[in-house]
Amino acid sequence: MLRSEVAEGSELGRAVSELLSNGQFVSDELVNRIVVRKLQQPDYAGGCLLDGYPRTVQQAEYLEAFLASAGKPHAHVVHLDVPNEVILARLTSRLHCPNCKQIFNMSAETLGWTSECSECGSILERRSDDREDVILSRLRTYHELTGPILALYTGENYHRIDGTLSPDDVFHAIQQRLGPCLNGLPAPY
Ligand SMILES: [Zn+2]
Question: In 9-111, where does DSSP find H-type helix?
Answer without folding.
Answer: 11-21, 28-39, 57-69, 84-92
